[in-house]
Amino acid sequence: MAEGEDLQTFTSIMDALVRISTSMKNMERELLCPVCQEMYKQPLVLPCAHNVCQACAREVLGQQGYGTHTGDPSSEPTSPASTPSTRSPRLGRRTLPKADRLDRLLKSGFGTYPGRKRGALHPQIVMFPCPACQGDVELGERGLNGLFRNLTLERVVERYRQSVSVGGAILCQLCKPPPLEATKGCTECRATFCNECFKLYHPWGTQKAQHEPTLPTLTFRPKGLMCPDHKEEVSHYCKTCQRLVCQLCRVRRTHSGHKITPVLSAYQALKEKLTKSLTYILGNQDTVQTQICELEETVRHTEVSGQQAKEEVAQLVRGLGAVLEEKRATLLQAIDECQQERLARLGAQLQEHRSLLDGSGLVGYAQEVLKETDQPCFVQAAKQLHHRIARATEALQNFHPATSSSFRHCQLDVGREMKLLTELSFLRVPEAPVIDTQRTFAYDQIFLCWRLPPHSPPAWHYTVEFRRTDVPNPSGPARWQRREEVRGTSALLENPDPGSVYVLRVRGCNKAGYGEYSEDVHLHTPPAPVLHFFLDGRWGSSRERLAISKDQRAVRSIPGVPLLLAAERLLTGCHLSVDIVLGDVAVTQGRSYWACAVDPASYLVKVGVGLESKLQENFQGAPDVVSPRYDPDSGHDSGAEDATVEASPPFAFLTIGMGKILLGAGGSGGAGLTGRDGPGAGCTVPLPPRLGICLDYERGRVSFLDAVSFRGLLECPLDCSGPVCPAFCFIGGGAVQLQEPVGIKPERKVTIGGFSKLD
């Protein structure tokens, strides 16, 4: 029983030692200089907040072409131990800059050193390549002289050395090799000595004999952190410069107007923040362990995925090689067949020409036939022979090889293929799409259009995301709604909520994955449901002056010669008439919205709404808009102006002319058909690209808006005692275009009294 308990105790002690050893090894990585990969010795704090040994910093600056004066002389030993070869064992292995090079660098001028005037023109700024962040850090004109030593890090390194017994015995820095073990240390000399060397460098009767010996150590630190500029102990902290300062620094012009606090306040605030952060980390060790497991799993997946990617690439390249090998065999076989055919033809021609030689072949046979004396037999044999000799004679006279020896037709043009193979690389994800703001808008539905940048990899499909931004959500922003696998470069979002603000974005996807999102685009939806209607030119007069398009969504007023003649006779009492066109839909309830574009070159156009009965009643004949006996705003054509003054007008129009909108005083100047409010009664604003009209039937109000920004232009009362329909009036030339619906075009119909009827 006792042996089991002892074994369990021993096991627990060993586990604790392993944990401590692991923790120490992990901590040791924080105590290594990024230059020499050894523990810090007199570390300096760079402006980028990283640390580096002072000797290493001087060595790096020497390699960069700076002199040794950029170090801090006050922090170096003043005894014979200050020589680089004896101050530290690892410094003896370093290659120092040559003396002539250092003299040349010192004469070139930078920093402040004896012989150089302060305030000289164009002082050299020392740049230090930080080995931790791989960036160039500006040290200023003073170089390393303007940096603080990290005394806290020195203390941590010393405690760590003592806890793990790193480095063994401390050796004397003044002994000749091999050095003896140090027994004393001197804070004034900033070196460690054996007994003999201490007596040698502290002789009796000298000032050094008064130095008090200390225990041997590798780090000689000042009692407090000293200002590198004034060699005084720092007492304040500049929050603006984020730098410790002394009393002299505080009163200098460099820190005038800066927020400076005592070191104690900065110490307490920073210690509180660090303690709180460390407490949070220690209190969430389970989360840290979970994230470590997740990262380890990600590492494993990365290794497996990388291996799979290698195999896929190798397989694809092998496939390309197989295709090339198959193509090579096919092409070589074609060349071989062509070669054999040509050789056969040339061989036959060669054999035929060889038979023409004297005494051989055809010539020999002919010579023997000529020896025949029997005439009938000669004729029989020579007839066929003569034809062969004639062909041979012709071939001899018109000689050319039976085929060409060139194989130029078998040449390959692989320039395009070589370029493709040279440019063969991994497929990249698509770049962030660019929203086409000229074609993207919101009307009855939202139409979103985009394009890829010129040099972006292609996208197989897109993902469109959208959400409302005008709905308060206590838990944070509203969640994105997503539409996956959108083909093409446009998308239609149906049934948006009226009077809302939507934010939309899009990203592309291909085999390599999803790309970056486009910039967010914000779209305002109309304040009410969109009213679909067509133009109906059956009401009013002078139809020959109104040209309605075939789709009945645009109208143009053509003045013609009669109007010009009438304008010439204006002084004789002739008056201009109003040409009107109505919408084929009348509204009897709810809220409705529609938009249109007015040609900026129009002379005078009125856009608005009115009671259908009043419009039909007043425009069946030719109204006189200049006669003082007629004013539709008053509701009658007599001079009795004292009746029903407070009644809402049956019409509400916005007056547009020559690229301007006339806004009446008090919001009523544009409500009438004639627009006669007296001189100076209203003001003008520029005509927007599109005008929006919002009708609230229950409230008896109509609003005119800028259909692009939905900025209100004018709001008027309206008599809604009956069906109300859109109306457009023209005086002189002008044109109006209704905004096309985004979705499917509706059937043409007339809606009166809540009932629909096909036209």
How is this structure best described in words?
- Among the domains are: 30-65 and 123-168, Herpes Virus-1 (2-Layer Sandwich); 265-398, no CATH class; 434-525, Sandwich (Immunoglobulin-like); 535-620 and 649-664 and 683-738, Jelly Rolls.
- With 759 residues, the chain is α+β, with helices and mostly antiparallel strands.
- Helix 10 (361-370) runs antiparallel to helix 11.
- The strands form nine sheets. Strands 20-23-32-25-26-27-28 form a seven-stranded antiparallel sheet. Strands 21-22-33-24-29-30-31 form a seven-stranded antiparallel sheet, with no helix packed on it.
- Helices cover 30% and strands 21% of the residues.
- It is flat, with a radius of gyration of 50 Å.
- 23% of the residues are buried.
- Pfam families: COS, zf-B_box, zf-C3HC4_2.
- Residues 67-97, 622-644 are annotated as: Disordered.
- Residues 222-263 form the B box-type domain.
- Residues 513-747 form the B30.2/SPRY domain.
- Belongs to the TRIM/RBCC family.
| Share of helix, binned | 25-40%
CATH architecture of the domain at 535-620 and 649-664 and 683-738: Sandwich
Q: Give the CA-CA distance, first to last residue.
A: 105 Å
**Number of helices, counting only DSSP H or I runs of 4 residues or more:** 14
As a percent range, the share of strand residues is 15-25%
- Main beta-sheet strand count, sense and barrel state: 7 strands, antiparallel
